[in-house]
Every structure is written in C-alpha cells, then in structure tokens.
Protein: DAK2 domain-containing protein
Organism: Desertihabitans brevis
Amino acid sequence: MTRLFNDPDDFRDELVEGFVAANGRWVRAVPGGVVRSTRGDEPTVSLVVGGGSGHYPAFAGLVGPGLAHGAAMGNLFASPSTQQVHSVALAADQGKGVVFSYGNYAGDVLNFDAAAERLRADGIDCRTVLATDDIWSAPPEEKEKRRGIAGDLVVFKVAGAACQAGYDLDAVETVARRANDRMRSLGVAFDGCTLPGAKEPLFHVPPGRMAIGLGIHGEPGIDETDVPTAEELAELFVSKLLEEVPDGVDLAGARVVPILNGLGTVKYEELFVVYRGVHRLLTEAGAVVVDPEVGEFCTSFDMAGCSLTLLWLDEELEQLWTAPCDTPAFRRGQVSGQHTVSAEELQAKAAGADEVTEGSEESKQHAEQVARVFDAVATLLDEQADELGRIDRIAGDGDHGIGMQRGGRAAKDAARDAVGRGAGAGSTLRKAADAWGDKGGGTSGAIWAAMLDALGQAVGDTDALDARAVAAAVRAAEEAVEKAGGASVGDKTMVDAIVPFVRTLDERVEAGDDLGTAWDAAATAAHEAAEGTKELTAKLGRARSHGEKSVGTPDPGAVSFAMVVRTAHQTLWG
Amino acid sequence: MTRLFNDPDDFRDELVEGFVAANGRWVRAVPGGVVRSTRGDEPTVSLVVGGGSGHYPAFAGLVGPGLAHGAAMGNLFASPSTQQVHSVALAADQGKGVVFSYGNYAGDVLNFDAAAERLRADGIDCRTVLATDDIWSAPPEEKEKRRGIAGDLVVFKVAGAACQAGYDLDAVETVARRANDRMRSLGVAFDGCTLPGAKEPLFHVPPGRMAIGLGIHGEPGIDETDVPTAEELAELFVSKLLEEVPDGVDLAGARVVPILNGLGTVKYEELFVVYRGVHRLLTEAGAVVVDPEVGEFCTSFDMAGCSLTLLWLDEELEQLWTAPCDTPAFRRGQVSGQHTVSAEELQAKAAGADEVTEGSEESKQHAEQVARVFDAVATLLDEQADELGRIDRIAGDGDHGIGMQRGGRAAKDAARDAVGRGAGAGSTLRKAADAWGDKGGGTSGAIWAAMLDALGQAVGDTDALDARAVAAAVRAAEEAVEKAGGASVGDKTMVDAIVPFVRTLDERVEAGDDLGTAWDAAATAAHEAAEGTKELTAKLGRARSHGEKSVGTPDPGAVSFAMVVRTAHQTLWG
C-alpha cells in the first residue's frame, strides 16, 4: 500500500516538486509538468509525453537528451488537463513542431487532442502517436483500440531518438508509428495498488491467483489462473506474443528487444528469473535478442504485476532504440552538445498557455455575468458536495461530490482572475474550463472542462450575446460533452440531463421566449431528467441490498448538471 | 510477497543466469558471481563487491566501468562463500591488487576475509573497506560495528571511480575509507519481505506502525511509531542524521549528497514526496545539496521501507562521486576507452580458485580416507535431516537439517572430485569445505566451511599423519570455529560439543592412546555435551508451550557435530 504522503490532495504537486528537486540536472518545472533543463546545438522536433501520475518512471522520468522534451503530469492515474499539456508543449517547442505520445486512454486522448488544437491555433504543427501495445485489451484487427502499457517506452525512445537525429515532423511521426506497429505487450497482475490516502486497494486479485491482461489502472483482465512458476509465466508471455509477430517479420533471425517490466512490487530478482526463460524461449524460436531491458519502466504504485513487451526491430528502429539518451530514469551512452536553459526562459514560454484575450466592452459585461454564475455555483457545490458524494457511492466510487466541489472552486477563482485581466466572456469561460479540468479531476472534471471550453469558444470575446447565440453556444457545449464522454441518451449518464436541457432551450428560444424564461424551462427539463436518474440510483441501492444484479449505472453527473443550470438561472434572472 | 520462482533452491542460480542474459553489455558470469565484460586501456586496481542476493541493484547491478569490477553473489540474504569471493576476485584482478567492499555483516566478513587470505596466498594484494552506515545499529563511538545498508553504494562508487582514475591500492583504500567515515544512513520499515517459496514474511511490522532502524534483513530496529506523514519522515531522517555530522564538517555551506533509497514496495512517487522535505530541510540547515539520488539502490525483495543516506563531500569525494560510470543499474555520463573481454579468458582466470594441489602418495591415501568419511557423513545427514530440523525448529528457524544435508552432499561430491584429480588430504578437505560453504548456506554452512578449511590447511598435502598431527589439526579447526562463530563454551552453541571433543582427543593422544581409541573417547565426550543441549532444547520446548520466558538458546549444531564425529569413527575404525 501507499503509506507516505501528506495531504493526499497535494500528492501530485508535492511529488512534482520533489522530483524536480532531485533531478535538476535533467528537468525544470513548468506549469503542468516538466521540460528539459538543457537544449541541443540545433533546434529539433519536440517530443511531449505524459499521462496520470503513479507510473514512474513514466512519464517525467523519461525527459532528457535523446528521449522526451517534456512531460505533462496529471493527477494520480488521471489525464493531465488540456491546459497542462498545452503549457508543457509550449515550453518544449523549439520551432520545429511537436509530437505528442502517450498511452491510449480516453481521458488522455481527450486532453492531448484539445491541446493539439490549441497548439495549432498558436501556429505550432502537432502530431500524435499513441502507444497501443496491450494485446489483451482488444483483438489484433482493432489494434488502434488497444491500451498503452509499458510499450510507451518503446514509442517514446524511438521518437525521442528520431528528434535527436534531426528528423523532421513527418519523419518522426512515421517512425514512431512504425515502432508502435511493431511492438506488443502482455501484462499480468497478482494484486492491486492503493492510491495515497485510500483505505483499500483499487482492486484485489484473490490470493494465489494471477489476472491475465489486467490493465495498469486495474482495468479488468480477460482471464485468471493460479500463480504460475516463473518458467510458466515466461512461456505464457512468449507464446502469446509470438502469436502476434507483425506482418513481414520472419521469426527466424528476427531481431527483437524484450522489455520485462515490473509494475511495483514484483522485484528485480523475480524479474531476472522470469527473464531467463523469456531469453531462452525467444532464442529457441529463432529470434535474436537485442539490447533487452529488465526493470521498472512503467509502474502502477505498488501494484504486484509485470509485463513483457517485444519490439520487432528493423534497421532504423534498432539504430533509434540503441541511440544514446540521458534522463532521470533511463540512460545510455552519452548525448553530446547539450547546454543548460534558464528557468525564466521556460516559464515565459509556458506562460503562453495562460494568456487571455481582451474582451469587447459588451463581452466584458458578459464575462462579469459568467463570473457571478461561477461564484454562485461554487457556493452551491460546497453545500451539495456531501449529497452528490452519497449518490455517487451507490453507483460509483463516491468522488463526484468532492470532484465537483474542487472543480467549481477552481473555476470561480479562474473566472474572477480572467475578468480582472480584462478577458471577454469566451476567454473567461475557457479559463474556468481549464481550472475545472486541472482541479476537478476524474471523468466529471474532464467533461466539465470540455463543455465549458466549447461554450467559451462558441461565445467568443467580441459579440454581444442574444438568446439565439446563447442557445447555439449551449448546443456546441453539448456536442463537446457527447464527444468527450462517448455516451448517448439512455446510457444513464450526465448526457441524460444535458440533452433535454438543450432541446428545451432551443425550442423555447425558437418560439420567441426571452432567454431567462427559456432557460428556466430548460433547467426544469434537466431537473426532471435528473430525477429519473435519482430514482434509478435509489432502485439500484435497493437492488444491491437485496443482492440483485445491476439495473444499470445512473450518473450523479446528471443531478449535478441540473443543480448548476438552476443556480445559473437564479443568479442571472432569479 | 515473492511469487515468481521455479524451485526455490534454484532461485539464486536462475536469477544470476537471467541477470547475465539481460546485461551482457556489462557483465559476464564466472563461478561465484559476475565480472565486467569490458576492460579499460590501462590495468587498474580492481573493486570486488558482494553479499547475499535479494538486494538488487546491490550488488551485481553495480558492476561496470567506473564502478565495481566484480560482484560475488551469495544465496538469498546469505553471504557468498569464500570460494565464490575468491573466484570472482581472481577473474576481476588486473595485476594491481584488489579492494573488497561490502556491508558489515558477520557472514560476509568471515568469507571475504578468508578469500582475502587466499588472494594473498596467490600473490595478490587485497584490502577491505566495509560500509558501516546504519546509525541505529550501534552508537557513534562504535561506528565500525554498524551495519552497512544503502550507503554501500557510496563506498562502491567512490572506490570504483578511484580505481578508474588510476589510484594505487593504498590510495583507493584510503579514499574509500574516508567515504565511509563521512557517510551515515537511517532506515525505516513498514513491513517485511517474503523470500521465494516462504509462506510468511521474514517479519511483520504491525499495520499502521513504522519500525525505526530496522535492518535490511529484518534485524530488530530500536523504536516503533505510528506511520508518519511524508513530511514527518523527512524531518525524522534529516534531524537524526544532522546529529551525526562528521567531525570537521561545517554545516553552513557543507556540500552533501542525499540518497533516498526505497527497499522494494515504497514506490518512486512516495519517495519524491519525502525527498521534497529532505531537500528543503537540508537547505534550511545551511547545507548545499549536490547530485542527489532518489530510487532503488539497495532493496530487500518486497520489503516496505526506505532509508536516507547522507554523504558529506570534500573536493576529492565530490569528484569521485560525480565521475562517469556505466553499469546495469547505475549510470552517469560516459566512460571512455572500454574494450570487450572474452568469456573464455575470464573463466580461465576464475578457474584459479578451483585448483587442487597434487598430494604425496601418503597424503593421497589419507585423501581417500577423507572421501570415505564424507560418503558416510552424507548418508548420515540424509537420514538425520528431519530430526535435526525438528530440534532446530524449537530453538531456531528449522533450517539446520536441510542445510547440513545439502552441505554434506556437496562436500562428498567435492571430496570425490578432488581425490579423482590427485589431490592430497589437505586439498581434499579444503575443496569439501568450499562446497559445504557454497551449498550448505546459513551459519552452519559458514562454520563447517571454516572448520574443514582450517583442518585442511593444517593437514597439508605432503605429510603422513600420525595421531599428534591429527590432534593438532583438529585444534586448528576448533580455533577457526571459535573465530568464525564468536561463541564460547556455555553459550549453548556447536562450540559446546567441539571443545570437549578436542580436549579429550588431545588428552588421550598425549596419554599414548592410538588415534582410533582416542577419537572414540572424544566422540563420546562430544555426544554427552550434545545431549546436554538436547535436554536444554526439550526444556525450552516445554517452557515455550507453558508461555515461560526463554531459558537460553541451544544449538542443534552441537548435536550434528557429535553425529558426524561418531560417523567418522565408525568409517575409519568401526
């Protein structure tokens, strides 16, 4: 279990601080994560990696010459926010474009994609190469849907070495994508990890049993067996991965890099005993083992588990995999021609992610209204946090109340700050969105950030807003939520409340109602839909206490959404 | 817990095999451990480190240019045998002398010292620098008695860099000793580790509690508290270590290297949160932090714990600490001018540790008698292993029977092999001694190895042996046991049986008895003494079952010794 922390809420920030204090030779802190403290003789394409914290050395431990240029560091097991990714990318950019690389998880895709859009708006070209190596998370014909696990390292190393070698943006993207295509992983776990401050592990595997294909955040595996011998595990790993040798690779004489990765509490000696079998089996199969790695490259706190990754080399990949690099946690040979960069310079670059657009006079007045709504919403969520937590505990993990409370408070402060700096309504909403995403955490944080950001983009910083403009902006926000969450009406999620809200608002505005009246009716529709999910929640609670099977998963997000739009009405028209 | 293994008896050998397969860039296997696979342009002093397995990256993970030249790899948590250390040292030697460095534990001292004697007999000068950094294992005025924990890395790194820089043997020893003098560590643990195949952890710390000063093999700590916050732990570490700033160091402006080491399941993120406090507190105290390390440098399988080491630099130590090195687990910058060495060459060098001396005709006849005794002893111990285990379980950990059985079998095979190669009696006994030490393990393995080795040295490979010569050799063996074990008569150890055996043998030989008669009487005396410890064992068993306090710790070693000398009599004169 995880024992050493102060306030669990501060864990991510404090670990970043300690990490930077210990590794100033390689990295400097910027808002959202870290970037290299050095720069080469010539500017290159920049590689920005990232993801949730709790997987060290992924991701920040892999920043340095020959590998990544920056790492966006999210909260524990949570994607970095859009703003965090954007900020790190701005600080890492050298004018040659940016490649994003990270493991394939919905939250990360959402935020990195949004940050890529912002980078392009800044005039910086940006590409994305996902790691999709976990063979048991989707079938071979859907490789693009697979999760990224320890194979992250392979894509990062190849892309980082390509940047270092002076490849242009197209070429870095191409070779990194090929690295991912020629790489497969399989993981097993014996028990779950405990997040700082949690009383219980995220999940349990029964004693004496091993979960096969279980993800690094506890995502379900597809099989469970008795704990095998080291030799049996080596056989399982190698046989399953040899079933998926990439097209065009002839096993006889194929050059392959095995990476045997410990997730936290399967220790080095055990890994070496397993590796002994892996090495022999690969060699017996006719492959030539090149430059293997055995150790901890992508952990999950103290999870008991390990994974094997195989990278099937070609000449170019071998050159890039074996090229020098120098980072806090992964080093090879020597990278020449590196010079120190000042902290001030990096902070100034990253600050580009925190600029606001000056609003027109009309838009500044709207911004003041927006800030008043966030003031009221923050007060509302302070009052309702416990109740939202209670509802969420029936259907989920109980963190919805605290997440909404943190997000609402952060949004309020960010909106007030933006108004103070002369921002228009759109920028104010987008700053509030970033702050909600940063501090709210979890799925609700990401969805509220996406919704408010889309609302802000639609609203802009110039126009005076009439009822039709607001209704159109709200429709854009709804689309962002559906894209971010991937849910539809009837899935019993937040979408169940947003859709009737938007439909009613549209209808009433079309019918000629003033905005306040239309909003009132729309808020009522959202409330009624949310009551439906509340009823379902209650029913689910009863069903669980009677040992019945699940009757669906209602989302407290619908309830909180209805509360927020009601509060907005009271603030502006009440 | 440790889950991945095959036959636990093979764990050490299999981990060495896997480690070498994964790290052929740096190391090659030789009997007893590993040595570098590369050699520099000029020969240097060689640094040989080592200890029990289970502490990776200590010790084999630290072999490579700029750091150690070889590592002797013992069984799990058990010292390497004398022969293992000797073999690795021979392979590592470059003609400029050898420095041994390792953590201060009785078993390691015993075997490394004996190997140093063998090296000197080979004409190779050898020095020893122990790591004695654990401040809570002995008071400051007895620093030389302290255990070595993660501070091993400091002594190894400084000594290895000094070798690399071309220092001579005296100079390497001097600066390594200064590194140890200027270095202090303090460790804490939250729970114990489980050795491969064991059902239970070596020890437990109660849930929610933290043991302070607990050793890396579960040696008792001196205090226990509730689990502190990360900040409180940083304060504990720094305050205790600042109480012991070495003489002559002025804290204001002192340059210090902090090494925050995880023992296995306290993970990186937690370590960084603790390090944040350590860094701030050291800086607030006026010290200047140089080149810190946060990670896993000396583990104990999956033990939950961590330690802080502080190295107080001077100019020379700073140069050596920050010098380049390149090993499987610890790398910095680039070491130039390294060339690959063939496996054959290293095997040939290490083979010097396995030479036998051709015996005179008389000594060869004695060697045959020795081999016959070992045949009979191996059979005896096969039969008595369960009974010896039963006795040991009352007083100890129950492994005496299996240890004696393994040692006896290995000694039998080694003696037969030596006789087949024409060895004299002395060499035959010494080969048997090495094998017993290698395979027997534990304290009894080390003591039997020391006893048989001393016996072999005294017997030699030339002389025909009369009763007086045998009695003198047996006296030498007794002295070796007392030196190795540090026990006296009445301590209820194996010594209780050896002393009456030797005294009786001496008396009867002096009185003119023939050797067979004298040995018979001596074996009877040993048996009577052993019966005394058996009675004590039974009494202890009763006391325990009645919940009484300990009545002393009898040693099944006395019982097995008596059995062996009785069997020797039956074989030679029975």
The first helix of chain A runs from residue 11 to 22. Residues 547-551 of chain A have pLDDT under 50 and may be disordered. The first strand of chain A starts at residue 27 and ends at 30. The domain at 358-573 of chain A is CATH 1.25.40.340 (Serine Threonine Protein Phosphatase 5, Tetratricopeptide repeat).
